[in-house]
Design goal:
This protein is of the alpha+beta class and 201 residues long. It has 2 domains: 3-151, Jelly Rolls (Sandwich), CATH 2.60.120.10; 152-201. Helix content is 52%, strand content 21%. It has 9 helices and 8 strands. The chain has helices spanning 3-17, 24-33, 88-93, 114-121, 125-151, 154-164, 166-171, 174-180, 185-198, and strands at 35-39, 44-46, 54-60, 63-69, 72-79, 84-85, 100-103, 107-113. Helix 1 (3-17) packs across helix 2 and helix 6 packs across helix 9 (185-198).
Length: 201
């Protein structure tokens, strides 16, 4: 499969994932702006102080988004296959990012560049709808995470993640999972033992 065919395939997969149907012309325009990235473990997609110029669709691999607070690494989000990665404030406002986006695993991603995305959106209502869906999902995920952290216990947060996003539990480093769930590694180990003992799936 050549690169153009691959980009069209990925464009179709993104649209399916977001429940958007594009015309042939709109799909072609969207596929054309996708940029493939084959990256190694530890590669930083966005570094602190850089402007986030892409939204990244993860075809393969796992991405950690984090920031530093009092010299401690705080996990903001963990993404994997089928997810979109964006440092949202930096991307929208074109300001330096406070968030680092780094590969936990080697992977393949397809970038949607800010300038090209804005350009095609100006000429297509269909593509505006697709971009709106990107923003909508990102905001909903952020709100859901905030609600979970406010209202659920450590054990409830772990069980929810295990059921709704098991790849994070299976593949991400323990300390990153603990930070993502806003608990210490010791608390996470205790919760995991309780859940295993109780046979909760």
């Amino acid at each position: 499969m050549n690169l153009n065919d691959k980009k069209r395939e990925v464009a179709r997969e993104i649209c399916r994932s977001y429940g958007v149907t594009l015309s042939v012309d709109a799909m072609r325009a969207f596929a054309e702006i996708l940029e493939p990235f084959k990256v190694l473990r530890g590669h930083r997609l966005v570094d602190e102080g850089e402007v986030c110029n892409y939204m990244y669709y993860v075809e393969r691999g796992m991405v950690l988004q984090y920031y530093k607070k009092n010299k401690v690494t705080v996990t903001e989000h963990i993404s994997h296959e089928g997810d979109m990665v964006i440092c949202i404030e930096s991307f929208f406002l074109r300001e330096p990012s406070k968030i680092v986006a780094s590969m936990i695993e080697p992977g393949v991603l397809f970038g949607i560049p800010y300038d090209e995305m804005q350009a095609i959106a100006r000429h297509s209502f269909e593509l505006c709808q697709l971009i709106f869906k990107f923003y909508e999902r990102s905001l909903i995920i952020s709100q859901q995470k905030a609600d979970v952290l406010r209202f659920e216990t450590a054990k409830e947060r772990y069980i929810r993640t295990m059921r709704e996003n098991p790849e994070i539990i299976r593949r991400a480093p323990l300390h990153n999972v603990a930070s993502f769930l806003q608990m210490t590694p010791e608390t996470l180990s205790r919760v995991r033992a309780q859940v295993t003992e109780e046979g909760i799936v």
